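Residues and backbone
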Amino acid sequence: MNQTWKNWLDRILMADVLLVFISFAWFAVAVIGRSLGISLGLEQWYKLWQPVFTPAIGILMAGAIISGIFSQISKRLGN
């Protein structure tokens, strides 16, 4: 049961990492576009920052901490 839960947590965290990387790439491209005078969606990125990207980063951090805690517990219990 414990391994199944950890596998699901790892899958969710991998999807979250993908979302964070994609959002960073979008931000980088949009900033470069703005410096060149091309609109590549920086305003839309700003609109999504608070409701989407900030929680995604928080979930990623919390999930990494939880995963580390469960790994340490498993090591100490010998599982």
